[in-house]
Specification:
By secondary structure, the chain is an alpha+beta fold. Helix content is 46%, strand content 15%. The mean pLDDT is 95. It comes from Cohnella lubricantis.
Length: 319
């Protein structure tokens, strides 16, 4: 029997829960240096914006298939990552569960925490074979949450997910920043990330879903507060991120100014002032559209082999 407890991992809920978890794991493992807003910007996480038509709190993390959504951002900062996840109702879940328990413990043995869907995202930072438990930080409390090995992956949602990380390579800042604005553009231009369901809008459509719900008055109040708090915090992260990298290209400095204006629209925002909030959101959507135009202008100046190169077998997978 054995166990591991990584004391240097400190997850704190401030940003999107995946970004909070990622920053805690990578900084503790020496794979990333810098403030959380830089990580949120470079991975594109700060730009993700999704809204359920009734403003349910699940909106904030419902930005698509997590494997597809998280991997490009982690790749962009030069970190090796592996993940697994799916639906716990599938008959094969127990096999995947037992395999995941093994590789989660192996990652912890190597001193690297694991991101885990609780929900929302948290960090597994220890285990104890004698009690058959994992120790998890949720970012809200300094106290650990406990998950039994037998309950790994089980929660009140139908999804399970875990992600760990290997080594890191150094990527030039210019390369990371250019890809981050392309990730932002992709999110902005993709209206639905959870097809075939269309009850969650993403990117520019998320603004419409949010303002429509506020106008109708038919929405989840707790969800609305959570969505708006996350939105305001993320846009301030973007502002700080762009200020840090503005020296690279003039478009970044101008886009940063747009996000600065945007952030100022929501000082003292309140659901009780729905009309004022709707007006602020409409102005914010226009400012963000202008920022995306600047990103598009910057992107066009440089080759984009990730998206322009067609594989030998075309757009379909090899057979």
């Amino acid at each position: 029997m054995s166990g591991v407890y990584l004391k240097d991992i400190r997850m704190k809920r401030e940003s999107k829960s995946f970004a909070d978890s990622l920053h805690a794991v990578l900084t503790a493992a020496g794979m990333f240096e810098g403030p959380k807003y830089m990580l949120s910007g470079l991975t594109g996480m700060a730009f993700k914006f999704s809204v359920h038509e009734r403003l349910l709190p699940l909106s904030v993390s419902a930005y698509g298939n997590w494997g597809d959504e998280h991997s490009p951002g982690v790749d962009n900062i030069g970190v090796l990552t592996i993940w697994d996840g799916g639906r716990s109702r599938h008959p094969t879940f127990r096999f995947y569960q037992q395999d995941a328990i093994r590789w989660v413990k192996r990652s912890l043995d190597e001193g690297v925490g694991v991101i885990y869907w609780l929900p929302e995202f948290g960090v597994i930072h220890g285990y104890d074979d004698e009690d058959r438990i994992f120790y998890i930080q949720d970012g809200y409390s300094s106290d650990d949450r406990i998950v039994l090995y037998d309950n790994f992956g089980l929660n009140f949602t139908e999804f399970w997910y875990a992600r760990t990380f290997g080594g890191a390579v150094r990527v030039p800042l210019e390369t990371m920043v250019l890809e981050s604005v392309r990730l932002a553009l992709h999110d902005w231009d993709t209206p639905y990330r959870t097809l075939p369901n269309t009850d969650i809008g993403s990117g520019r459509l998320a603004y419409s879903y949010l303002t429509q719900a506020l106008r109708s008055g038919d929405y989840d109040e707790g969800g609305a507060r959570y969505i708006l708090s996350s939105f305001v915090y993320a846009r301030d992260e973007i502002r700080r991120y762009l200020a840090e990298v503005a020296h690279l290209w003039p478009q970044l400095a101008e886009a940063g100014s747009r996000y600065g204006e945007l952030a100022g629209l929501f000082d003292g925002w309140s659901l009780e002032n729905a009309q004022g909030l709707i007006g602020a959101l409409e102005q914010a959507a226009a400012l963000e559209e202008r920022a995306m135009e600047l990103f598009r202008e910057l992107s066009r100046q440089y080759p984009d082999p990730r998206r322009d190169t067609v594989p030998r077998w075309g757009i379909s997978s090899a057979r």
